[in-house]
Design a protein that fits this description.
Length: 160
């Protein structure tokens, strides 16, 4: 199941439409590669073969995303609650790995995709960290599996 907020659901549908447009462009470039090739159009035509590979990859991605649509759970906006982690909250967490610990400032989003290149790092409800801390109490300790390692996560505080 994919968990998103309303904005994340729209983002997911937009991604499907973007992939459909990319698929149409790939079909066009494949047709062009076929038509401009010497001979019968597809023997030893690397542009055509690459176009077909990309086309299959995009089609597979679209199919998987469309299959997931009925399994998407859309989270509605909640009343603010300072004692639990909710969508839109920025929290300081401590992750205890088997050999070391580290603290992070993360923002929980209902988006379809995470954005780890911003400050604070945005994580979705579908990530191991987001899934494990969503709706948990501040100061609580939870477990998550990150890169096949079980870690302890302490929710230190909400940051305003």
């Amino acid at each position: 199941m994919l968990i998103v907020d309303e904005k994340g659901y729209e983002e997911y549908l937009e991604e499907i439409n973007k992939l459909k447009k990319e698929y149409e462009k790939t079909i066009t470039s494949g047709t062009d590669a076929y038509n401009t090739a010497v001979g019968d159009g597809w023997h030893d035509n690397f542009d055509f073969e690459e176009s077909m590979r990309i086309e299959r990859d995009i089609a597979t991605k679209i199919d998987k995303m469309l299959e997931n649509v009925p399994n998407i759970k859309v989270i509605k906006e909640e009343k603010p609650n300072n004692s639990i982690v909710q969508i839109g909250d920025t929290v300081r967490i401590k992750i205890d790995y088997p050999k070391f610990s580290d603290e992070f400032l993360v923002k929980i989003t209902g988006n379809y995709l995470s954005n780890v290149d911003v400050e604070p790092m945005e994580i979705t409800l579908n990530s191991p960290i987001g899934n494990s801390i969503y709706h948990k109490r501040i100061k609580s300790k939870v477990k998550a599996t990150i890169n096949n390692e079980e870690v302890d996560i302490t929710i230190i505080e909400k940051v305003q």
